[in-house]
Amino acid sequence: MKVEVITIGDELTTGTIQDTNFTWLSEQLSLNGFDVIWNQIVRDQAEDIQRALLASLGRSHAVIVTGGLGPTTDDITTEIVARTFGLELSLHEESLQKIRRFVESRGRTFSESQKKQAMLPSGALLLPNKLGTAPGYFLKVKETTFFCLPGVPQEMKQQFCDGVLPELKKLIGPSHFYDHRVLRCFGLAEAEINECLKSHDFGPLRLSYRVSFPEIILKLVRKGNDSTSVQRGLDQAEAYIRQALGEKIFATGEETIEQVVGRLLKAQKATIALAESCTGGLMTHMLTNVSGSSAYVDRGCVVYSNRSKQDILGISPDILKEHGAVSGVVAKEMAVQVRRLAQTTYGLAVTGIAGPTGGTKDKPIGTVHIALATPMEVREKGYHFPLSREMFKIIVAHVALHKLRRELLKRSSGEI
Amino acid sequence: MKVEVITIGDELTTGTIQDTNFTWLSEQLSLNGFDVIWNQIVRDQAEDIQRALLASLGRSHAVIVTGGLGPTTDDITTEIVARTFGLELSLHEESLQKIRRFVESRGRTFSESQKKQAMLPSGALLLPNKLGTAPGYFLKVKETTFFCLPGVPQEMKQQFCDGVLPELKKLIGPSHFYDHRVLRCFGLAEAEINECLKSHDFGPLRLSYRVSFPEIILKLVRKGNDSTSVQRGLDQAEAYIRQALGEKIFATGEETIEQVVGRLLKAQKATIALAESCTGGLMTHMLTNVSGSSAYVDRGCVVYSNRSKQDILGISPDILKEHGAVSGVVAKEMAVQVRRLAQTTYGLAVTGIAGPTGGTKDKPIGTVHIALATPMEVREKGYHFPLSREMFKIIVAHVALHKLRRELLKRSSGEI
Fold this sequence. Notes:
- Chain A is α/β, with parallel strands linked by helices.
- Helix content of chain A is about 40%, strand content about 25%.
- In chain A, a hairpin with a 2-residue loop joins β7 and β8 (about 145-150).
- β14 of chain A pairs antiparallel with β14 (about 295-305) of chain B.
């Protein structure tokens, strides 16, 4: 079933804000098995909105219109929808009461201009707004159903999930069974994932990739005749992918690497201390973005200067001189010392050259050493990531956190 | 002059990636005085691309088409442009040689499929691609000029700046003098800025705001009869705004607060050490995102646990017990100690409660103390930012870095 989107607002056509509604809507619609064919972004201009509506009529089975439902004079979507399709506007009493109650419950006074939001085209059915005053609605014109939603992302999303998606599923009929799953992969390029999976026949399941640096997101969408077969198909595909890609699949849905590591540390009542040089605090920042991380993050030492490596971690000047600050030996020392000083279960350390300056022939820009100290041992590995400064920091932080994740998994599986 | 954009690609209509080209293009075009009226996002489907092209023809003076210029079979933009407007495709020799040289200079072999990228519609003029193989081009159909550019943002931007913008300026004619200026503001809400500036008559200058949390970006666009009057108009407006908003304007153009602070520290040959609790490393991460920051960032201590505050900074357990870790006294101690240990010019410290848990009646979530130790003194201030964990970290890091910035400005102006 073909669906398209019309996005209305001067703030979009002047580049004042980035539209995110279309990307969100098109992903949700695709994951639910609808074909998104078009997005038109237009100004708050009567003539342009009218042209956009007429272009969509007949071309798609459903059209989602966002924006221009507010109480101010430049919010003209409803007026233009009515005019374009020759419909009368009338006051929707139920909607008016809801808006009035919403406004008054927030201690504000209901104003005449808000009455406008309760004027709906004849034949329109309401999509309640739980988060604001602008109600959405939908109406059928010939063979096309138009859904008009507010432009505020939160309100739009709520009305889409609660109102639009169920209606669209009714429109497409009862034989439409769709579901999806999202798997997050780290440590393989898109082409390598493709190579691992290409010999497998996924049948009616649609598999797609999205690069979200430095991760690849795998989306599995499955259609079927009933929900059992859809779930079974997704289970089988997920099992195959997990076997093929192994521990490179580190999370499902929206879970981040810092959340995965936090969950594992918490479950094992383990703690962590970090010693960062080239990542400049990013690893500790990521870990502490997770609520409750103070239970397992003890400290992070951003030892940027050589003196700070000596002062805070007690790394001897001789070692620094002999091997250089960017070396496996120093990385190991950093991990061991930060763990010992903090008396944590783990010590994680990185030292490298982020660039764009500071590289040498022996140690070019992008050189990095990552070390993990555990209760049993300390392990270190060298890498080379010749990327921009910002991307270098990101990839190094992720590689280091994945090292910790694998260690935690081994421990929880009883391997160590 | 009316301009519109057509964006082509299945990855956009399925929500696989967020389109950023339109926002960038519409901002650039608006800043240069063009009216952006429409954006159509369509799939890699011949029929849809054709319909989108025909919808734009006549409606706008210029149409920018992005995407679908690559070497693979689903890249069909050029073929459809030619078919839609009844133009022949022919091999563009100069372009072919450029593509061949580009591919070979990267040690790869030129393939037949890349030849396709050198096939241009008759009458098309080349827009050279300095960063990749896909050349852009433009051609006039009736009264509308179509510019076809690759979808890769970097390549699109280069071709737009070097090729499209100069052509558009030619199209609009010599009497079109436009220029713009961008001012970055921190510490005032949009409504407060508006209040400060509303009594002033900016004449023909267009002033707009964009929220880029936690900053407000002010955009000044000025039209005039010659470039002198345009520059004079911008100078006057900028001078007025700087006087009205004072040191809240902290940068122009794309400069970030961490770049501003870095520039000032470098100029004064000053150094900095950080002690972070609730920001979890974000301040140090921001400062070290700037290339060359190792010249002035000595260290950052993320002292998350009480023990780490004692170990690393030598804060006495008595003080922690008496005042609590989140207190003005501890913030001051952190700033003074980290500065003393690192022997830096400045010590900057924050301690607070990011939430969503950990608040008390006396110290609710969002409480934070920020302290700056200088060669002369230590100053501390308490704040309350009841925001999400992520936004709290961001605002606190910015407030702290702006405190440092004001100190550096005072010093450079000889005030201290």
